[in-house]
């Protein structure tokens, strides 16, 4: 037994930790396709030495104080649904599973706020809010397999972001445990001019600068009316022009998703409707007070029609809504011995998105059987692009280099076009090799924050391209 583990057991004699071999293996992978294939091929490079499951924030503080003094790596874990390897224990040590910190601490109906512990699952929070007539309006595809703390750590973005924004817009205050166990709570206000926003240091930091203990977020009333429609476009270019003009008009539909012809076939299957060949499907959704939602829908529809859009009924849009958390296509492909699947999301300004999409589609085509693309988070200045690759090779060992090549081609192509290499999945291990180039000189500022907040380098080591 490692000497530090003996010391740990003396300080933490409770049943909040485990060294069971099967449990350690379970925590050795998240949902990153590469590490799943590695496991299928018998490789387990990210096995932690111990898993700690605290029930109280005080236990987290005590753990960090001890780990910092003894220079023991601590890797935070939410629900293990990340797809880029951000929660993997690259240096062994302690895997900190926060899933027992899963309660609503405050529901403030006057100020429309909810304070939630970091380990609460997204769908459980949404269910409890819905029962009171509220919603978070944060709806990532991983809602039923991700935690509030995970959203903060990865700078997550939900499917309804065109109206409600990403987690950085919804989260107003954080309680964070630093590497030495010190607790900080950021200021709660609708807005404050108090220097740089300390909250944003931790949003997207992937657990490398502090451990999020709880989050205070906005809540909203459930919408009075929700309108869904499906519009077809003759080309990707015409659909992108339509999204841009809707977003730049001042309209904010809660749902804007545009699929290329290849992915439109996959999306339509849930509705039983077969779209015409070479049709590009646009899903539109407006919600809120009835009169406002109806007016917004009509105004958006007018813009879409002016760009060549043709209504094809609400069935495809409703089918997508009913199955929007379904990840089985990727999971089923990965379950096959030689099956591989990858999801890569980027973001680009409007003037470069079409060529970026076209080059990604062309450059990735030789590497997979299916290369699908859709645009799912829109802004007045640009849009996100989500590429899905599906394929099958001889076995898991053969799939590993293929996945690595996919990432290399996708990141190189993205950076050649000046697009952002991630929109909402984060960096993890998958994108780490490209982060310094992506950030340029500003990476030095990030490294200085790491050195100041975690001088021993114990928090999620091996991530965000830090020196340690």
Structure description:
There is one protein chain. The chain has 468 residues and is an alpha+beta fold. It has four domains: 3-99, Uridine Diphospho-n-acetylenolpyruvylglucosamine Reductase, domain 2; 104-221, 2-Layer Sandwich (Uridine Diphospho-n-acetylenolpyruvylglucosamine Reductase, domain 3), CATH 3.30.465.10; 225-322, Alpha-Beta Plaits; 328-430, GMP Synthetase, Chain A, domain 3, CATH 3.30.300.330. The protein is 38% helix and 21% strand. The protein has helices at residues 3-11, 21-26, 33-40, 57-70, 122-131, 148-154, 161-164, 167-170, 199-202, 236-248, 261-268, 290-306, 315-322, 328-335, 350-364, 396-416, 432-439, 442-453; strands at residues 17-18, 50-52, 74-77, 94-97, 104-108, 113-117, 134-135, 171-177, 183-185, 211-218, 220-221, 225-233, 255-259, 280-288, 310-313, 339-349, 370-375, 382-392. Strands 15-12-14-13-17-18-16 form a seven-stranded antiparallel β-sheet, sandwiched between helices. Strand 8 and strand 9 (183-185) form a beta hairpin. The radius of gyration is 22 Å and the shape is globular. The two termini are 25 Å apart. The mean pLDDT is 96.
Structural class: alpha+beta
Q: What is the global morphology?
A: globular
Query: How many strand elements?
Result: 18
Main sheet specs: 7 strands, antiparallel
How many structurally independent domains? 4
Number of alpha- plus pi-helical segments: 18
Question: What fraction of the residues are assigned to beta strands by DSSP?
Answer: 15-25%
Report, as a whole number of angstroms, the end-to-end distance: 25 Å
């Amino acid at each position: 037994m490692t000497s530090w583990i003996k010391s740990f057991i003396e300080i933490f004699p409770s049943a909040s930790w485990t060294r069971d071999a099967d449990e350690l293996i379970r925590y050795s992978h998240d949902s990153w396709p590469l590490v799943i294939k590695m496991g299928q091929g018998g490789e387990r490079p990210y096995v932690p030495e111990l898993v700690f499951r605290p029930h109280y924030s005080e236990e987290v503080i005590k753990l960090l104080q001890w780990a910092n003094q003894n220079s023991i790596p601590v890797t935070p874990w939410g629900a293990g649904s990340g797809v880029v390897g951000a929660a993997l224990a690259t240096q062994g040590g302690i895997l900190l599973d926060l899933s027992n910190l899963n309660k609503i601490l405050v529901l403030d109906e006057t100020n429309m706020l909810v304070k939630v512990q970091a380990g609460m699952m997204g769908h459980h929070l949404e269910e409890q809010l819905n029962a009171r007539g509220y919603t978070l309006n944060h709806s990532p595809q991983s809602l039923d397999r991700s935690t509030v703390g995970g959203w903060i750590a990865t700078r997550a973005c939900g499917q309804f972001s065109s109206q409600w924004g990403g987690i950085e817009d919804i989260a107003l205050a954080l309680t964070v445990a630093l590497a030495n166990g010190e607790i900080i709570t950021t200021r709660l206000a609708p807005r404050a001019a108090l220097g740089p926003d300390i909250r944003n240091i931790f949003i997207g930091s992937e657990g490398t600068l502090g451990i999020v203990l709880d989050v205070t977020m906005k809540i909203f009333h459930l919408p009075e009316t929700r309108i869904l429609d499906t519009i077809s476009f003759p080309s990707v270019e015409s659909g992108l022009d339509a999204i841009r003009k809707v977003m730049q008009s001042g309209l904010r539909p809660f749902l804007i998703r545009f699929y290329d012809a290849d992915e439109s076939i996959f999306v339509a299957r849930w509705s039983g409707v077969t779209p015409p060949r070479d049709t590009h499907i646009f899903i539109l959704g407006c919600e809120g007070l009835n009169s406002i939602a109806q007016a917004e829908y009509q105004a958006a529809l007018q813009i879409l029609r002016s760009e060549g859009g043709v209504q094809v009924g609400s069935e495809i849009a409703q089918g997508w809504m009913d199955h929007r958390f379904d990840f089985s296509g990727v999971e089923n492909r990965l379950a096959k011995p030689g099956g591989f699947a990858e999801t890569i999301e980027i973001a680009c300004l409007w003037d470069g998105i079409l060529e970026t999409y076209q080059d990604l589609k062309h450059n990735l085509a030789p590497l997979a059987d299916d290369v699908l693309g859709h645009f799912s988070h829109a802004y007045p200045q640009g849009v996100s692009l989500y590429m899905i690759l599906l394929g099958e090779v001889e076995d898991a060992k053969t799939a590993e280099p293929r996945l690595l090549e996919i990432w290399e081609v996708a990141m190189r192509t993205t950076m050649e076009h000046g697009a952002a290499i991630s929109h909402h999945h984060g960096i993890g291990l998958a994108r780490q090799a490209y982060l310094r180039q992506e950030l340029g000189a500003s990476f030095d500022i990030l490294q200085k924050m790491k050195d100041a907040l975690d001088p021993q380098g114990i928090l999620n080591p091996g991530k965000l391209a830090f020196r340690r």
